[in-house]
Structure formats: structure tokens, C-alpha cells
Amino acid sequence: MTEQFNVQTLNQFIIQRQSEYPGAKGELSRLLHHIGIAAKIINRAVNKAGLVDILGEQGDQNVQGEDQQKLDVFADSHFINALKASGECCAVASEENENIILFEDEMGRNGKYVFCMDPLDGSSNIDVNVSIGSIFSIYERISPRGEVAKIEDFLQEGTKQVAAGYIIYGSSTMLVYTTGNGVNGFTLDPSIGEFCLSHPNIKTPKSGTIYSINEGNYINFHSGVKKYIKFCQEKDAKSKRPYTSRYIGSLVADFHRNLLKGGIFIYPQTNKNSNGKLRLLYECNPIAFIAEQAGGKATDGKQRILKIAPEAIHQRVPFYTGSTNMMKKAEEFLDFFDNI
Length: 340
Ligand SMILES: O=P(O)(O)OC[C@H]1O[C@](O)(COP(=O)(O)O)[C@@H](O)[C@@H]1O
Ligand SMILES: [Mg+2]
Ligand SMILES: [Mg+2]
Known about the structure:
Layout: H1 10-18, H2 27-47, E1 57-61, E2 67-69, H3 70-86, E3 89-94, E4 101-102, H4 106-109, E5 113-121, E6 132-140, E7 163-169, E8 173-178, E9 183-189, E10 194-199, E11 210-212, H5 223-233, E12 244-245, H6 251-261, E13 264-267, H7 280-293, E14 297-299, E15 319-322, H8 324-338
Parallel strand pairs: 3-5, 11-12, 11-13
Antiparallel strand pairs: 1-2, 3-4, 5-6, 6-7, 7-8, 8-9, 9-10, 13-15, 14-15
Helix pairs in contact: 1-2, 2-3, 5-8
This protein binds 1,6-di-O-phosphono-beta-D-fructofuranose and magnesium ion (2 copies).
Organism: Ancylomarina longa
Pathway: Carbohydrate biosynthesis; Calvin cycle
Keywords: Carbohydrate metabolism, Cytoplasm, Hydrolase, Magnesium, Metal-binding
């Protein structure tokens, strides 16, 4: 194994990219730097989760009615601390908090950005040592700096994101993000405690042979989704079918695999949940920004996720994302079968 010596660290990359934006004052750079710090702290806790009292339930329920895991709360509080310390953030919307968290001190009120986050994604996999993640999305506030931030600062459509990304705590820990100028991945090198550029300018294949959906919900799927699953399972050498079914149950991990290998991830509306399960602001919008920047697609089955006008902080939407050609085929099935 040859070790790379001319590695570029996340901070070096952030500073280099900042110079591409004339007039940039470093606010976004400082915020991204602090996300890196929070990611390292959470990574350390995840790595030794079995040895410290951080597995299992916290004992409370979050606004979604889910039992909060200790690591959900741990990640939530460490991100909030890091965002506060950055001095660039005026408020946070988090899966683990019903209302937005306002930074009302002077430094906070002067923050230029608002931050949406899923501090710990894949909570059902925490206790069983399966890959989990954190997801974030950043917007420039629309309310005047100096004032306390408002809910309207968060209800901006996804096309307005200035940056988005995720951290995957897996066999290695990676941070993958975009500022609207391509997608780059950084792997944490524990020996130097630095995220190092390992996946520059990620592009997702136009086609793939992996489909990811929780088939346990099959009977509640609409007919378009059922027909598309059948299409994935039929034998056809020319289109490399049957495709392979892969489902980890952590959005970040399922998306990351498909991003690199090509594939499609679907969490659709069902007869039970007309809006599916995943949250627009801190799961679907950031992942959709990454998907599109890597040459893929992300929709709710009908329209671009990034064009949906948010109405509520914890709003759910059906989510389809992946390789362009697979998305087109899936949409054909949805259009045909859901409209007959
Ligand atoms: O178990 P299900 O219904 O398939 O849901 C799995 C989905 O739910 C999630 O765990 C929801 O995210 P959280 O763990 O952050 O609540 C996603 O990561 C994943 O894609
Ligand atoms: Mg999640
Ligand atoms: Mg979560």
C-alpha cells in the first residue's frame, strides 16, 4: 500500500476554494471548518461506542415521535456547540429539536448563515455497528444580520443552498460536500486527525445496477413503484438486469454507495405515509444538491426536490435519487402506472 504524501487537507481545500470567490470574507470557510471539528468529535464517539455509555436510547422522543438514541443527542449537541463557536451561524434546524435553535447573543445574531441538520442519520443502525452518518445543509439568511433569525430563513427552496454535505461513519469516516462547484470527498486519517482529499470531483455513473428500497413496505407501495421493482428484478442481459438489491437502512450509507457505483435509492410515499418518511430540509435537499452536482438526479417522483418550496421544518417528501438513466426509467413507471 503506497501512502500518498501530497495530500490536501479539508482546511487547505476550503481556503484554496475560497480564493475562487472574489470578495469572500471566509465566513463559509470558517463554518465548514467547524463542521469538520464536530465530525471528528462524533467520529471518536462512534468508533468507541461499545466501550462508553453512548449506545441505546436516551429515554426521550423527538418531534417525529422517534425514540431518541443517546448518539442522536450527543451528535446534536456537538454540532450546535461547533456552529455557535464558528460565529458564522445565526440559527439551526435539527431533526432532534422541534423548533429552530436561535443564537441570540451578539455574535450569533450577526451570523450570516442558517444550518439545517440530521445530526445522526441511520439511528436504527447505531447499536449494531452498521454505517451511520450526519447530513447538513447551509443557507444564507434572508432576514437582516444583527436581528434574531426567523423561520423564513429556513423555508428557502433547495436551489438556494450555499453548501451541503454529509459525513459517513463507516469502515472509514468520510466527509463529502458541495458548494455548488462539484462534489469532493475527504477521508479522515486518524493518524494525523485530518480529513484528506481522497475523492476529488465525484461524478456518479449515468447508469447502475443497484436498487435500494425497503421492500418490507412492498404491499403499501403504489403500483408504479411495484412495477419498477419488478422491472429491476426481470432478466435482461442487454440492460444488465436483474439489478442487485442493496439496502442498509441508513440514507447516507445507501446514497454514498450508489453515488460511487451507480444506482437508485427510493423512499416513496406509501398507502400509510402519503409523504414517505425522509425530511426535506435536512435529508432530501442536501442529498439532492450532492446528487445533482455529481451528475445524478433527485425528485419526489414528479418534480426536482430542489424546487420544492418548504412549508415546515420537519416536512417529509417522497424521495427518489440516483443515476440519471435509472431515474428516467423509474419516472416512466411512476407516470404510467400512477396515472392510470
Ligand atoms: O427503516 P426504514 O423505514 O427503511 O427507514 C430507513 C430510513 O430512515 C432513516 O434512518 C431516517 O433517518 P434518521 O435515522 O436520521 O431518523 C434513514 O437513514 C433511512 O434511509
Ligand atoms: Mg436521517
Ligand atoms: Mg437522524
